[in-house]
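Closing statement on the CO-5-methoxybenzimidazolylcobamide sub-project.
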Amino acid sequence: MTDLLAKIRESVAELDLDQTLEHVREALERGVDVVDLIEKGLAEGMRIVGEKYESGEYFIADLIVSAEIFNKALSILKPKLEEMRKQVKPLGTVVIGTVYGDIHDIGKNLVATMLRISGFEVVDLGVDVPPEKFVESVKKHNADIVGISTLLTSTMTHIRDVVEALKKAGLRDRVKVIVGGAPLTEEIAKELGADAYGENAVKAVEICKKLLGKA
Ligand code: B1M
């Protein structure tokens, strides 16, 4: 099983779509845990892609290809994920989005997927989401949690704007705010006014449950 996860990681890192899809199908057939497959296989492969980009081996076009590979692999897992979602009881509503100025959505989509299969109702606002859209959605869906994702150092401070907008709308006491994404840490999250920081999608689910007293 560990071998197969390593193969998935490597094929994503090598931008090999066919191999990635083949290994993912095999992993599913062999009953590999879907969460491991995503976190230790696909997401880890993306991390290596990022390193290759940083070192100058890969370019923006390669990042785009990597995102396509990731999304295609994830689509193979959809039926299994849907099956898992049906087996859980409802826990609460999360409004989630990537903060304005940032269009990275793979991590955010993963968090949304994991929350759904764990029993949360998820309202996904997409990418480049302005503060007022978060506010509007919290009101409309009577959300319990706001989830904000950001991958860029230059946009992480925009989280504060969302928190401020929630305060201004009188909603901050009613909702918990969880944030995540590569440039953030627990400390930065607190400084920006969030209640919690999720290091990865699995942790994000644990934290959301805790925030609602359902852990
Ligand atoms: Co961009 N990019 N990118 N990129 N990209 C990074 C983030 C970067 C680290 C690459 C690098 O230089 N090493 C760098 C940011 C540097 C920084 O600011 N610190 C960077 C840059 C600079 C840029 C551009 C500015 C490049 C340019 O144009 N010159 C540009 C920005 C565009 C914009 O947003 N305005 C850009 C564009 C792109 C693409 C569009 C080509 C593509 C994104 C495609 C897409 O998302 N649909 C892309 C990609 C693919 C990456 C890397 C390679 C991979 C990101 C990813 O999907 N990772 C990335 C390098 C890296 O991360 N090492 C990079 C996989 C994903 C599963 O992990 O998103 O971290 P991640 O999510 C994790 C956790 O962070 C956490 O859980 C997830 C699952 O475990 N998490 C949460 C995330 N959100 C959470 C929310 C939560 C809780 C946990 O609660 C709500």
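The two ends are 29 Å apart (CA to CA). With this model delivered, the sub-project is considered complete and its resources will be redirected to Aim 3.
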